[in-house]
Amino acid sequence: MPKDLLTFLAVSYGLAVLVAAAGLHFGEAGGQVLGLVVGVVYMFTPMVGAVAARKVAGGPVWGPLGARLVVSRWLFVGPALALVTCLLAVGATLLMPGVRCTPGMEGLFERLAATLPPEQLAEAREAVAKLPVHPFFLAIPQAFGAGLTINALAAFGEEIGWRGYLTPRLGRLGFWGASGVTGAIWGLWHAPLIVLLGHNYPEHPGEGALLFALVCVLLAPMHTRVATRARTSWAAATCHGTINAAAGLPL
After folding, report:
1. Closest-CA residue to 215 (of 200, 228, 204)
2. Residues 187, 193, 195, 198: is their CA dihedral positive or negative?
């Protein structure tokens, strides 16, 4: 394996394990604030890995990684594709056995009952009842806005590693091959966060880590396409950020 590629994997995965372990160690004392900090720091470990790999390879560092913000319609096409993907996921979910639509969000409130005090749960129900539009429809433009702004900033820490460094580095595999391998590495990189901290799959960490790897393989071509067309990692970051913001729509 080339030295720069090995450096990228070692740094990205090594730092991910260290950050997740720190979150596990200090988790109970830090609460939700620490959890948020751990998540954001975790997302920047591929950037560190990409910079380290470029240093090993020699030559310019940031330019080849697509770090420059280029004004392109693909900065907006990516989030639109991400929203369509999440809305299709809502439809696919309703086709599964035992799943039904609950406009009153009873299922979501049942989940919240395990973490919120009764008075806060009652306040949440009352607040939702007073909304002029159902929260599902309010969440769609909010996800789009978050994907273009705050979420994109966090996702950029990942995307400069995945689509800025790794996918072009695997270019000899072709579009689908490079996207698939990048997606698998991207997905398995989440394993420490899922297994140690229960991210996304608190009741099924082992199966969740494998399932999320598959999810990332399926999402990778979309991210590769927008980054390639825009010629900047920021396009993949806005797509990625919108996926993160809209992932809760099925719930």
Report:
1. 200
2. negative
Can you give the pLDDT at residue 153? 95
Q: What are the distances in angstroms from CA 242 to CA 4, 11, 149?
A: 30, 26, 9
Answer whether 0.70 is exceeded by the pTM.
yes
Which helix (H) or strand (E) element contains residue 238? helix 233-246
Amino acid 18: pLDDT: 96
Q: Are 234 and 57 a contacting pair, CB within 8 Å?
A: no
d(CA 27, CA 44): 19
**Which of these, 51, 71, 58, lies nearest to 166 by C-alpha position?**
51
pLDDT in tens, 63-82: 999 999 999 999 999 999 99
Which residue bears the tokens 């800025």? 164
Return d(Cα 23, Cα 197) in angstroms, integer.
7
- Give the largest Cα separation in the chain, rounded: 59
